[in-house]
Structure formats: structure tokens, C-alpha cells
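Re: the request from the purification team.
They wanted to know what the chain is likely to look like in 3D before they choose a buffer screen. I agreed to run a prediction and write the result into the notebook, where they can find it.
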Amino acid sequence: MNVSMNVEEYMVELGRRARAAASAIVRASGAQRSEALAAIASALTADREVIAAANARDLAAGESAGLDAPLLDRLRLDDAAIERMIEGLAQVNRLPDPIGVITDLAYRPTGIQVGRMRVPLGVIGIIYESRPNVTVDAAALCLKAGNATILRGGSEAIESNRAIAASVRRGLTHSGFDENAVQLVTTTDRAAVGHLVRMSEYVDVIVPRGGKGLIERISAEARVPVIKHLDGNCHVYVDAAADARMAVDIVVNAKCQRYGVCNALETLLVHADRAAEILPAVDARLAAAGVEVRGCERTRDIIARAVAATEADWFEEYLGPILAVKVVSDIDAAIAHINHYGSAHTDAIITDDYGRARKFLAEVDSSSVMVNASTRFADGFEYGLGAEIGISTDKLHARGPVGLEGLTSLKYVVLGNGQIRP
């Protein structure tokens, strides 16, 4: 940030540069964008040690500041995480280029052909906390989809984000792209976020990734459209027709594989006919992992160590080793519970009954609905999107993990040979 500028002037300057860069990206071919992504991957590979050292400084500062374990976990970039970051970029680069593709082209009675062409959104502002890998994911997806982006990471990851952004910009320059196609907000002043979400002249959409407080603030203040989810209160329902071993394995994975993520299991629902069989087996593994159980009365009759769940527990995204458990009478009760208390993120049923599986898929109103799989699969990388820029629980413009298609729009195209309207 130029020290002679105040925060508002600085953000406006970033917006101007991004808008100009977006115009240049539209003129670039898919092959040129692919070359830029390959150059960024090479720069990141060459700068691994620099990125790791920067991340170590962030981790040390975070520990000194008393950041909790889930935040430190999301902040950490070990060798494997850096490798996944680079591989995610390469996977995005291998995806088909969406820009300029015309679909649904059909003749009308007048002889004109009407279809739809996929086009970039323009300039995308991305606001995120903790996870520095988002800097690469966002840059790759936005560039592949023909967009410029302004990135505003959290102050706890500022050193990591600066190092990664420097590599990204070096790759852009090396490939002949305007380096302002990807810009990092280098000030940690919180006022920068307020300016970014109101710059409708320069920014076409905002994607926030972070805690509920951040997203609520952005939703309240934004004058730019927002793609968001507030929280991830995810459910697994174990049906009467569930395979017991499968159910236990999925529940434990969904809850314990990683706590501080939005697709982790927070509420377990079990059919009353299977509770006495399933819950003790689940609890044995949860207890070994140090997971607290908060249950309904029937759950506490089966799991002696469970504490009483309150009404608030059914709404809660714990992001930690706590699980709410409820015994339900049937699939209709499970679906009603999920649609009332859930956050429309990710919910799963464990069942061998095809009809109930179809019913669950049709009636649960969430962005991802699963059959016989862990909620932890609700992720852009796992869905084959290469990476994701976030997960949306909105119903307009994108829903679920937001990959390339979610960062584009459609416009109608009409092909004629001289037709005039009668």
C-alpha cells in the first residue's frame, strides 16, 4: 500500500487496476490463460521455501496471539499442503475452458438461432480468513474463468498471502499478463473490507470465506452481489435400512477427520429402530477421539456419558470435538429436523433402501445432499472442480462448491441471416 494514500484511495486504485486487467483478460485466449496458470505453478514451485518461511512467521505470530487450534490448523502450510496447493492449480488448468462456449443453440420459427454463451463475471472480490491456500485457489479459478480478482486475506495470514501473491504476480508477468489480474490487499486495516464490498463501480461480485461474523458483516454492508454461506451445520441421518459398519465409519469420518471445517458433521440423527445398535458403536469411537456428545433424552438413555442437548445445540456449528445426537422416529422426522435446524450446506443419509435415498435427495433442501458418503466430500477438489472459491448455500447465482462455472455468467446470442421481425 502506498503510504501517501488513505485506505479508501488505495482500494479505489486497486479497483481501477482490476477493471482494466479484466478487460485485457477477456481479450486473451484460453491457451494464453493456460500458459499463465502454468507459469504461476512454476513460480510457486520455485518459491516453496520462501512461502514456508512466511507461513512459519504467521504461525509463530498466531500462537503468540493465542489463536485457537482450529484456526492454526487452517493457517498451517506444511510441505504436503503446499504440494496440494500447486496440484490444485494444475488441476484447474486441466479443466475445459468454459469461456466462449455456446450451448442450447436452436432454430426458432423465424429462422434465427438462439443460444447462450458462457462469459466471465468481470472483477471478483474475495475476502477470506486463515487459509492462505485460498490465495492460489482463488487466483487460479478466477483467471481460468476469465476474471480479475482482488484478494483480501486475514491479518493472521498476511505474511503467507504476501509471499504467495508475489509468486502469482511473477508468474503472470512472466507469461505476459497484466499482473493486476490478481491483486492482494496488503493493508490489514479492517476498513479495507468495508470499501471493497461497496465498490460496485469496480467489483462485480464478492465471495467471502470465513466465520459467521465476517459473512454477516459483509452481507449487511455490501452493495455488490455476494456469494456466501453463513455456517455449516451438517447432518448425517442413519436410516432403519442402514448397514451398521458403514454407518459407524461414515459418522466417525464426517465428525473426526477434521473438526474446523464447514463440511464436518455437527448433528447425527439415528432411526429409533437402530439407535440401540448403532449409538454404542459410534460412541466408542467418538469417546476414543475425545468427542463430547450432546444428546436428546433417548440418546442419553443409550450413551451414559452424553450431556443434555439444548435447543441451541441443534442449530450449532461447533467446528470442534462436539457432536449433537438425536433419535428420530422415521425419515420424515429426520428430513423435517434437517430443513428446520440445518444451514443448507451438506447432509447425508446412510441407507440401503433406494426409495428412501431418493426421498432424502429430493426433500432435503441443501446445497449438497449425499447417500452413503461422508459429508467431508463436500469440497470443490473432491467434486472434480480442481479447487473451489467457496461454498454457497444461496439459491441464486451459484449453489454448493463454487468452481469455474460459478465464476461465470451466461448471455444470449442470436445468429441470423437477415431476418427482421414481422
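For the purification team: The chain has 15 helices and 16 strands.
Please add any questions underneath this entry.
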